[in-house]
Every structure is written in structure tokens, then in C-alpha cells.
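A quick aside before the break. I want you to see a complete sequence-to-structure record at least once, exactly as it would be stored in a machine-readable document. Don't worry about memorizing anything.
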Amino acid sequence: MPLALLALAIGAFGIGTTEFVIMGLLPEVAADFGVSIPTAGFLVTGYALGVMFGAPLMTVLGTRVPRKRMLMLLMGLFIVGNLLSAVAPAFAVLLIGRVVASLAHGAFFGIGSVVAADLVAPDKKAGAIAMMFTGLTVANVVGVPLGTLVGQHIGWRVTFGIVAALGVVGLAGIARLVPELPRARGVRLRHELAAFKNAQVLLAMAMTVLGFGGVFAAITYIAPMATHVTGFADGSVTWLLVLFGLGMVGGNLVGGRYADRALMPMLYVSLGALAVVLALFTVTAHHKALAAVTIVLIGALGFATVPPLQKRVLDQAHGAPTLASAVNIGAFNLGNALSAWLGGLVIAAGLGYTAPNWVGAALAAAALVLAVVSSALERRDGVPGTVVAAGAAAQRAVAHH
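That is the input. The structure line, written in C-alpha cells, reads:
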């Protein structure tokens, strides 16, 4: 794997840290600005919405910009957003800083996925995408716990300052290590938008929303579930999230490796197993050791779907994959928001803190159904995704010559 992937992974580490670290710092931020915890929660919601809307917006704005330069501009935007958050004199300014940083998120991972795939041989593309996403998963194991610790003991502003510094390192790495990749010839915004007419692209994005939504239906409410149902102490929640992060790291690497060999079978196995494990979590949540193991499995199986789904979008949106790739990153956040809302509904209905696990199992099962439908449509049309991608590549080569 080329060193350029390390630079992309560092940028991903910073983005992953800033996205999730705020969840552990809400009490400190709320106390500092004299707002309620629900009001402080807008810092999470605002970031997620910024990713959803920022992914297509920033990608469209960058269609005429070389990909390396666009990645550098996005990291610059990320640095500005975190610096603004670090020095925010009022809650509204902090919220603006969070949104500014979030605008870089979707486009960075979307464009970064395309760049990572272009840096390696065709049979290693999913592995390269997984290598970049390793930065995001490691952020949940190292960056978020350390950032929370620093924020609680030294100050949350220091945490955002450190994250901004990570952005500077990522920017320098991209400038130094990522090669100047030629822009795809003849690709315009209308070509990027045309990818959304492809039913397979839309099915892959729907799988992303539902599959990853299944993960976050359970993990969003892990704190009350762990303390009220399993019997863990409040301080143990951080370590449970570290276990979840470790599972994410392992699942991401395994998903990347096997997606290059058999993409759709990898999705069948990971989505099917995820649905089963989430359903079992309603039982294992009552036992500490079993709950801990289940949390690792949810992280592993959930993130095992990420490289294959991202590569599926790249393959199907052949010729103009950048916008579709970025929108698929927004789809992960849409899944997070949808599943958190549905999980809250079943808890509010009095079904208990383990009820979101059933929601997650249903979402993952629905994603599996879509995967089966997607393959059936492909067989009916008689054009496998890899053949489509290869054919498009051959056409581009002919056009080039």
C-alpha cells in the first residue's frame, strides 16, 4: 500500500475524532455556556446535518478542482472549523465551528475513497479504501477516549485545538505524499449526477443507510443500556466504546480484504450476521461479559460493510464516481440519524432500553434483502458490477487514445 494512504488515514483520524469526541464533552460544554444538555446536543445534530448536506455541496463545488488540491482545501476547512470551535466566545459560534468542520467530512471521505482506489491495482481497491477508513476507526479507539480525557481534565477547548493540529499534520501529509492525479477527462457535473439514475448506485446507498443504521440503533443508546440493564458503572461506558472501536478497526480491515475477492458474498455474510448479533444483544445485554463481546461483534460486523459498500458505489458509478462516493458518506450519517430517532421512539414507547437492538436487527435485515435484490437485478441484466466497471474503463482508455 502506498504511503499516500497514510496521509489520508491521518486526515480521517482527525475527522473521526472531532465527529465523536463531542459526545463525551457535552456536559462540560453545556456548563461552560450555561445551556442545557439537549441544547448542547445540537452540536451533534448540526455536525451530522453538515455532513449530509456538505458532502454533495463541497463535491459539486470541487468538480473542476484537481482531487489532491481539493483534499487539501477540505483539510484547510476542517482546521478552520476546529480552531473556531476552540476559541468560540459563545455557543452559537461553537455550533458554527462544528458545521464548518463538518462540511469537509463527507467530501473528504468521498474524494479520498476515489483517490485511494486510483492509487492501487484494481484487485486492491477495497483494501485501499479500508486503509483510509482505518483512520476513522482508530479515532474511536484512541482519539475519542484521549480527547474526552483531555477535555474533562484540561478543557474542551484544548481538545479542539489538538484536533486542529491533527488537521495540519494531515494537510502536510497530503501535500507531501499524495501524487497529482489527473482529472478524469470529459467528466462534468452532469456526468456525476447521471450516476444517480443507476438503480444499483441507489440500492448501494440504501444498503448503507439501513446497514449502518442498524449499528447505531444499538450504539446510540449504549450508555443507558449498559448502566440500567447490564449493570456496568457509568465509568465503564468509555471502555465499552473502546471495545466497539476495536471491533470497527478489525471489521474494516477484514471487509476491505475480502471485498476485493468476493464483494457481494462479503455483504451477505456481514449484514446477515449483523442482524443476528443485534437481535441476540437483547439477551446478551443482561450479562456483562456477553454484552462486551457482543459490542465488539457489532463494531466488527458493522464496519465490515463499509469498504464493500463504498467500492460498490465506485464500481457502479463508473466514469464519474466522485459525487456518488461523497453522497454515500452522507448516507452513513443519514443512517445514524434515522436509527437514533427510531431507537428513541421505541424507548419512549416504554419497550425498554434493549428495544433499539430489535430496531437495529430489522434495519440490518432490510439491508440484506436489498443486497439480495441488487444481485438478482444484476444477474437478470447479465452485467456483473465488475464487468460494468471494466467495460467503462476500456471505453475511457479508447476515448483517451
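Two observations worth writing down. The radius of gyration is 20 Å. The chain has a mean pLDDT of 83. We'll return to this after the break.
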